[in-house]
Specification:
Layout (H helix, E strand, L loop, with lengths): L2 H7 L4 H4 L2 H8 L6 E5 L5 H9 L4 E6 L2 H11 L5 E5 L14 E5 L8 H11 L5 E7 L18 H10 L3 E6 L5 E7 L2
Parallel strand pairs: 1-2, 1-4, 2-3, 4-5
Antiparallel strand pairs: 5-7, 6-7
Length: 186
C-alpha cells in the first residue's frame, strides 16, 4: 500500500467528518453486537468503534490483500477485529449472522451495486440496519475526497437499496462532506 493512501485513510480528521459516535447512533449499536465493515481499508474506523463499544466485534472486509494485511499487522492483537479478504462477489460470512453493517466512501466505487446489496441482505439478520456513507455530490464538498464526477447521487443509493427490498430507508446529512443512507433488512 502506498504511503499517501495510508495517510489519507488513517487521517484523524476523518473522525471529525464522520464521527464514530454518529455511526453508533445511526446503527443503534449495543454491546455484544457483531458488525460488518465492508471496504474496511486499514481498519481505522473499526478500531475506533471497538474503543467506543467495548464488547462489539467487527468483521472487516476488503478486496485488497494489502488492506487486509494492514489490519492484521496493526490490529492483530485486537481479538474483536477480524480482517477478511473478499472477492467482492460473495462475503466469507454466514447467512443472517450480522447485527449491523456499514460502509464508508465505498458505494461510489462499486461497479456492481447489486452484489453489494444482495450480500448484505444475505448476511444481515432480519431487521438489522445497514448504513451506507459516501461523499456528497455537491461542489462545496469537493475540497476533500474524489472529484464531483466520481461521486454518486444520494437518490441513486436510496433507489438501489429500496429496489433491493431494504425498508425504512432514511437519508442523513449530519456529516461535513458525506451523506448517510440507513436502511433495515426486512
Amino acid at each position: 500500500m502506498n504511503a499517501e493512501k495510508k495517510q489519507k485513510l488513517n487521517n484523524p480528521e476523518r473522525f471529525e467528518w464522520i464521527p464514530p459516535k454518529d455511526i453508533c447512533r445511526l446503527l443503534n449499536l449495543s454491546e455484544g453486537m457483531r458488525i460488518l465493515d465492508v471496504g474496511a481499508g486499514t481498519g481505522y474506523y473499526a478500531q475506533r468503534l471497538t474503543e467506543t463499544m467495548k464488547s462489539i466485534t467487527i468483521e472487516c472486509l476488503d478486496t485488497d490483500p494489502a488492506m487486509v494485511s494492514e489490519i492484521e499487522n496493526y490490529y492483530g492483537d485486537n481479538a474483536r477485529i477480524h480482517p477478511l479478504l473478499t472477492d467482492g462477489v460473495s462475503y466469507p460470512i454466514e447467512d443472517s449472522s450480522i447485527d449491523a453493517a456499514y460502509s464508508i466512501a465505498l458505494f461510489h466505487e462499486l461497479n456492481e451495486t447489486q452484489r453489494f446489496v444482495s450480500e448484505h441482505k444475505r448476511v444481515l439478520k432480519p431487521g438489522a440496519p445497514l448504513l451506507v456513507i459516501d461523499w456528497e455530490k455537491i461542489l462545496e464538498s469537493t475540497t476533500r475526497g474524489p472529484s464531483l464526477e466520481y461521486r454518486i447521487e444520494t437518490e441513486r443509493v436510496v433507489n438501489v437499496l429500496e429496489e433491493s427490498g431494504f425498508k425504512n430507508v432514511t437519508v442523513h446529512r449530519d456529516f461535513i462532506y458525506h451523506f448517510g443512507v440507513r436502511c433495515e433488512n426486512i
